[in-house]
Amino acid sequence: MGVESAIDRRLIPRSIGAFMEGTISSGKVVLITGAAGGLGRGLVDAFAASGWRVIAASHRPPDFVESEDVWPVQLDVTDRLQIENVVSRGFARFGRLDALINNAGMTDDQLLFQMEDAAWQRVLDVNLKGAFLCSQAVIRLMLKQRAGHILNVSSYSARVGHAGQAAY
Length: 168
Hints:
Elements: H1 14-21, E1 29-32, H2 38-49, E2 53-58, E3 70-74, H3 80-94, E4 99-102, H4 117-145, E5 149-152
Parallel strand pairs: 1-2, 1-4, 2-3, 4-5
């Protein structure tokens, strides 16, 4: 498993928990973006504990311990070539890719009237374009396998606005 920690399954979103529980997991492979953050780390640990092999991708250098079942990789989800490289290396390593969890996300807390274009664009690139690019990279493999799952993670802020999070 990755980092030694207690897994609090209450922190795993219900839809992902239901997916984990309802899927025969032995030997299946999942790519999780945003793996170094709080939810991402919990997802890596929970999937590994459930018998999945995990590609744990994060923009920060990963601090997961590499093992037979957890492969930590550094990944910028806004860079198509990096994504394609990680997907192809992951497929070469594990021989399959059964699921993608688009969990990478960021915010740049600023009031809308003070926000620069570049800050706005960076949030959209990571949160939206990143999910698009990762999904596009894995879908080809999943079509060849004739199976696969893509899960997109959002936060409560997707439903309720908060001051200073216009781009988020």
